[in-house]
Design brief:
Layout lengths: L5 H7 L4 H9 L10 H13 L14 E7 L1 E2 L9 E2 L1 H13 L3 E2 L2 H8 L8 E9 L2 H14 L4 E4 L17 H9 L3 E4 L12 E6 L2 E6 L2 H23 L5 E3 L7 H9 L4 E4 L14 E2 L1 E2 L5 H12 L8 E3 L14 E2 L5 E5 L12 E4 L3 E3 L2 E3 L4 E5 L8 E10 L2 E11 L15
Helix pairs in contact: 4-6
The structure holds zinc ion.
Length: 424
């Protein structure tokens, strides 16, 4: 829930997810962290005083579904990784019909960095493992719809590699796709469980053997899986690889660290969930689409499709430029906060269209100053909940725009107790 003010600033510092969380807790505290009065007086300015960095306004309330496909075949033999071309095309069509915009992986990452806006309901299409049906069957369908696509390739599985058989995609096909804007990313070298302690298939001089690798032997092996595969793709195709799909979604902190150090910006699993602005970059869930589980796709679409009922009547605005007060994710030390947001960046606001809703209070008689674009409301009675969500909506250019944010209230829980907040 850290939006508007805090997160964009952190993003601007180009922090990794783990550092990001750390930085949030390391948020500057009032000097000495002393008496509550002091803290209350300085709590809001601490955030507001931080130097502002100009960044594009991105919709932090957008949601993204990421789909993971494998093979498209007419006759399903392995329903866990196959679907028919007809079923695939029907799904692509459904995304279009439901108003879900298919965006590129790099656009998703740019949005996560706060650099580029994406439509409020978006999807990313990915294919894993490198099958030739991805080139021959899936790609023409994707081109028909004008959809971008990302391929996660395990390098030994490309045709000619130790694990690349007749159904495998070729380097030439990958180069052709690259030339036409297909995003090609890493999925290890040999597609195995990357955690130490498992028996793995080792390829030496194209001969395969099962080995339980530990210590330095394991490190050498996993280094090649995580880093070597990235380097091979980059060198062979002359590309930059910044995404890593973990085989079977099996990894641990060590694997994550290796991937981070290798320069991967995002890591992907197969635990499907709508991706939000604050989803951690090292475990981005994708929906694995299988022939015998059509509900996975339907449920995913419903997850982000239900909210606006087939239309895009409401444009969600999420931006540090609204300089909300209290800031999103902030905690204030009063149960009667002054709530403010600056709508001037939204565009021309239609007079009388501004509404503010406050959790626990409902629609409140907020004040809107058309000159400054500032909407404000002084909460008159103590708020009872520990957190407060504010929803501000307005009409701009005939469209309804909406923003929401949440802040914490420290005093709220103690409000009813006469012995609250002992003063020193
Ligand atoms: Zn795979």
């Amino acid at each position: 829930m850290i939006r508007f003010a805090i997160l964009p600033l952190l993003l601007a510092l180009n922090l990794s997810m783990c550092k990001k969380q750390q930085a949030v807790t390391d948020k500057p505290q009032p000097a000495g962290n002393a008496a509550p009065e002091t803290a209350a007086a300085t709590a809001a300015p601490v955030v507001a005083a931080t130097p502002k960095i100009k960044k594009p306004v991105v919709d932090q309330t957008a949601q993204v579904l990421i789909f993971c496909y494998h093979r498209l075949v007419d006759k399903i033999r392995y329903p866990g990784t196959e679907i028919t071309p007809a079923a695939f095309e029907a799904q692509m069509k459904e995304l279009k019909d439901k108003g879900i915009t298919v965006i590129s992986m790099q656009d998703l990452l740019a949005w996560k960095r706060g650099e580029k806006n994406i439509p409020p309901r978006s999807a990313v299409v990915t294919f894993d493992d490198g099958w030739k049906s991805q080139y021959e069957v899936a790609w023409p369908i994707l081109k028909k719809y004008g959809y971008p696509v990302t391929l996660f390739i395990y390098t030994e599985g490309v045709r000619g590699g130790a694990l690349g058989g007749g159904e495998a995609i070729t380097w030439e096909q990958l180069a052709d796709m690259r030339d036409n804007g297909v995003d090609i990313q890493a999925h290890t070298a040999t597609h195995q469980d990357l955690r130490e302690g498992h028996s793995v298939m080792v390829i030496e001089d194209r001969k395969r053997s099962k080995k339980k690798l530990t210590g330095a032997d394991y490190e050498k092996w996993v280094q090649n899986e995580v880093v070597g595969s990235k380097e091979l793709l980059e060198q062979r195709l002359g590309i930059k690889v910044n995404c890593f799909a973990v085989p079977f979604g099996n990894y641990n902190e060590h694997v994550k660290e290796l991937a981070r150090n290798a320069g991967y910006e995002a890591m992907f699993t197969v635990y499907g969930q709508p991706i939000t602005f604050t989803s951690p970059m090292d475990s981005i869930g994708r929906y694995a689409i299988e022939a015998n589980k059509p509900k996975v796709f339907a449920d995913a679409v419903n997850m982000i499709g239900a909210s606006s009922g087939g239309g895009t009547a409401v444009a969600e605005v999420g931006s540090k430029d609204l300089t909300t007060q209290p800031a999103d994710g902030d905690t204030v030390r009063t149960a009667t906060p002054l709530i403010k947001a600056n709508l001037s960046s939204v565009g021309q606001i239609e007079p009388g269209s501004v509404q503010m809703r406050v959790s626990g209070l409902g629609l409140v008689p907020a004040n809107f100053d058309p000159k400054t674009g500032m909407v404000s409301y002084q909460v008159p009675q103590k708020l009872r909940d520990k957190t407060c969500t504010v929803i501000v909506s307005a009409k701009s250019d005939g469209k309804k725009v909406e923003t929401h944010w949440t802040f914490g209230l420290e005093e709220a829980t103690a409000a009813s107790s006469p012995a609250a907040a002992p003063k020193k």
